[in-house]
Amino acid sequence: MSAHRHDLDDLLTLMAVLRDPVQGCPWDVKQDWDSIVPHTLEEAYEVADAIERRAYDELPGELGDLLFQVVYYSRFAEEEGRFDFYDVVDALTAKMLARHPHVFPEGTLASRREGVSAAEVETRQVKSRWEALKADERRERDAVSVLDDVPRTLPALSRAAKLSKRAARVGFDWPDEQGVLAKIREELGEVEGALDAGETEEARAEVGDLLFAVVNLARRLGADPEQALRTTNAKFERRFRHVERALAADGRQPDEASLAEMDRHWEEAKRREHHHPEESHNNE
């Protein structure tokens, strides 16, 4: 006989028991809205990490950890008489139905459950409709700026990309990539100017402007800046570990080697990656 396959109701019951003041877990009982937020962000990053590593066998567990965060918040709300998990599901489903009239023209799931195929729709029209619906939603929430509801807790690179994307929707953007490149050169020049003048604090501020300009270039190229930097981080780590291993083979540490020697091992790591790219992916 196969083991019981737990379902959503089991998960919601488990959370209710964990939060029970009498029989629950002391750690879970003392948690609140704010204390769980850092865990939510961490779990989201762990999902992203598993996907980047193509660790699909780890994904059920990581996605479960992320889902558990939603269950947590829903439980807080239920205890306070605000809403419950099924209200979350209902709100999400209703929103997605409203945002996809080209797929659900009747605004319900009934026709799709009956196997009616969706009509082919030109991609640009779909995207335009989606953005219009989101704009309507923001207006309904009394939004006063196109930048409203961009989460402040996002990583800085991701938030910069979202802020600039919002501004670009209303025409506040460069006409092409060359304009962004010119801005990057301008900001880099301001960093150099501040350094030449001995204005260290000013240079630090200008670095922020330089980063924001680079994020805009990534956005214009269709690259996610957070993902791009994670990829570069992994590449740097992979190559530097090669440098460490190469030096260790001679019984030395990096601080015992010259920069020229470390650079030589670094270039060797780059050549190996170019000749065996599959190894680079597997090691990330």
UniProtKB/TrEMBL annotation:
Phylogenetic placement of the source organism: Bacteria, Pseudomonadati, Pseudomonadota, Gammaproteobacteria, Oceanospirillales
- Organism equals Modicisalibacter tunisiensis
Question: Which stretches of sequence are listed as region Disordered?
Answer: 246-284
* Keywords associated with the record: Hydrolase
Encoding gene per record: mazG
Specify the NTP pyrophosphohydrolase MazG-like domain's residue ranges: 33-104, 179-243
Q: What is this protein called?
A: Nucleoside triphosphate pyrophosphohydrolase
Q: Which GO terms describe its molecular function?
A: nucleoside triphosphate diphosphatase activity
Its top-level enzyme class, in one word, is hydrolase
Going by the entry's taxonomy, the superkingdom of the source organism is recorded as Bacteria
| EC numbers on record | 3.6.1.9
Question: Keyword Hydrolase: yes or no?
Answer: yes
Is the keyword Hydrolase in the record?
Answer: yes
